[in-house]
């Protein structure tokens, strides 16, 4: 076996990550509140020896509006509760739970994560997120998420959580029947934390988690996100568009990490990927185009469902500038035209985009054409780009699809891995169950045959799967930074 092994996570989205996927005739009707639905996915990926099963979490601002795009946000179980059940239904695979520091107290989060790390035998990781809408904050007596301040709060939050995990050292519980000493008081520590955002007297009533510190995941590519990843994260799973972008990002974050940590720690970069596998490339492309046909569009697909005044109003200005998927009500050739900078309405939805029209596309429009060429082989030059293809590409969801045979998908992953653009991938699928089963049953065996992926688990903790050392306890062996912090 070669030294360097690729890592795989499975990002469990209830209906997959293609916004039309749940309507596919073979897709199951999702049972968000039934354990069996999640455990079916868990079994598939643990059998395929994945490093981890990943539960994202976003608190919806508008459940009714979400149904047209991110259907998984319309109803989901609380992630710690679900993860504790998943722990009972698995034995090796890592479990990633998402929690937004803005919506927790560090003491509560430290207690939840330490408890689950104990109960899962050291398989937990915490995905730190700072996304979602200001509307979500209003469920927590907050006017909004706090803008850039939420990163500063998250920084102090993570520091306090790590200190709390350390607050009772390994071996503190003596339970010595002979002497009557229940706990070794020299191994119990108080934080007395007086910070800008938090005041925590400290001592978490739990022995240090089996992994010492529960590993941290983070996604995000802005300046503040890079600093947070560099300071704390073990795994980053942001979605760079090309291997070159990924290498530039990884190099930058690793350089920052060295500065902030004062040492070289491993940080694993696992870009997101959505494979769509079929027996032939042509069939895989056909599947993708079938999914695009299932996207909910405006009733008037060409002119759209809005009045003329809408297109110069504030709602459209906000949506047009947003990175989020287009909501229902603006899914038309009209809205697409506004976004790509060329009026496509005269072509109709089945018209072909000719070079003179494509030449007028703005940067966003050109990005769509590039994605379309990669996904389907349709280009303006080969006369294959219809307006409906561009429309589909713009609202299908912006997950990085890799479409083709199992060999093609495996080759793509190995190419990124070999070039140092990724240590592995956080895999999502366009819909369930077939695309997940095909990835697990057809792509993973190729990775195993090529010697870049484990055929059996060799450890049974999250840290173990990644070869991450357990950090020293900051109270037992305080380093100067922890003492002064
Ligand atoms: C692939 C990916 C998945 C994410 N999943 C979530 C999530 O489940 N919940 C959430 O609140 N934010 C989520 N986020 C948002 C990030 O936590 C973070 O707030 C955002 O990426 C910050 O972006 P920035 O680069 O502008 O700082 C996700 C981001 C990415 C890139």
From TrEMBL:
Keywords, alphabetical: Flavoprotein, FMN, Monooxygenase, Oxidoreductase
UniProt domain Luciferase-like: residue ranges: 22-354
GO MF annotation: an example: monooxygenase activity
Catalytic activity, EC: 1.14.-.-
Transferase recorded as keyword: no
Segments crossing the lipid bilayer: none
Gene3D superfamilies xref list: Luciferase-like domain
Chain sites annotated for binding FMN: 57, 98, 151, 222
Family under the similarity heading: Belongs to the NtaA/SnaA/DszA monooxygenase family.
Name recorded for this polypeptide: NtaA/DmoA family FMN-dependent monooxygenase
Lineage, opening ranks: Bacteria, Bacillati, Actinomycetota, Actinomycetes, Kitasatosporales
């Amino acid at each position: 076996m070669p030294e360097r092994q690729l890592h795989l996570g499975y990002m469990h989205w209830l209906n997959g990550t293609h916004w039309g996927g749940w309507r596919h005739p073979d897709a199951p009707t999702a049972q968000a509140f039934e354990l069996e639905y999640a455990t079916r996915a868990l079994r598939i990926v643990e059998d395929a020896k994945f490093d981890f099963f990943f539960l994202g979490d976003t608190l919806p601002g508008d459940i009714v509006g979400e149904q047209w795009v991110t259907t998984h946000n319309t109803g989901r179980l609380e992630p710690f509760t679900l993860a504790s059940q998943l722990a009972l239904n698995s034995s090796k695979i890592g479990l990633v739970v998402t929690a937004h520091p803005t919506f927790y107290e560090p003491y509560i989060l430290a207690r939840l994560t330490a408890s689950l790390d104990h109960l899962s035998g050291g398989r937990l990781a915490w995905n730190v997120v700072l996304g979602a809408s200001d509307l979500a904050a209003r469920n927590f007596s907050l006017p909004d998420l706090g803008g850039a301040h939420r990163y500063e709060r998250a920084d102090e939050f993570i520091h306090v959580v790590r200190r709390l995990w350390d607050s009772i050292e390994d071996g503190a519980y003596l339970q010595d029947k002979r002497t009557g000493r229940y706990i070794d008081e020299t191994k119990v520590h108080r934080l007395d934390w007086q910070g800008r955002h938090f005041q925590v007297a400290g001592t978490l009533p739990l022995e240090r988690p089996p992994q010492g510190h529960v590993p941290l995941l983070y996604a995000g590519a802005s300046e503040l996100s890079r600093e947070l990843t560099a300071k704390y994260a073990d795994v980053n799973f942001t979605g760079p568009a090309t291997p070159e972008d990924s290498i530039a990002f990884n190099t930058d974050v690793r350089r920052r990490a060295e500065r902030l940590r004062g040492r070289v720690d491993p940080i694993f970069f696992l870009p997101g990927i959505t494979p769509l596998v079929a027996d032939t490339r042509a069939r895989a492309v056909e599947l993708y185009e079938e999914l695009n046909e299932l996207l909910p569009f405006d009733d008037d697909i060409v002119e759209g469902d809005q009045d003329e005044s809408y297109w110069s109003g504030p709602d459209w200005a906000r949506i047009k500038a947003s990175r989020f998927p287009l909501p229902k009500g603006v899914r038309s050739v009209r809205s697409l035209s506004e976004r790509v900078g060329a009026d496509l309405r005269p072509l109709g939805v089945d018209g072909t985009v000719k070079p003179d029209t494509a030449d007028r596309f703005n940067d966003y429009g050109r990005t769509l054409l590039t994605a379309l060429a990669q996904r389907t082989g349709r280009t303006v030059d080969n006369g294959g780009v219809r307006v409906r293809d561009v429309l589909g590409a713009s609202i299908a969801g912006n997950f990085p699809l890799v479409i083709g045979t199992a060999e093609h998908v495996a080759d793509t992953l190995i190419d990124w891995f070999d070039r140092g653009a990724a240590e592995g991938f956080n895999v999502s699928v366009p819909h369930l169950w077939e695309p997940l089963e095909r990835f697990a049953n057809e792509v993973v065996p190729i990775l195993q045959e090529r010697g870049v992926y484990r055929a059996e688990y060799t450890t049974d903790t999250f840290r173990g799967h990644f070869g991450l050392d357990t950090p020293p306890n900051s109270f037992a062996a305080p380093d100067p930074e922890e003492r002064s912090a």
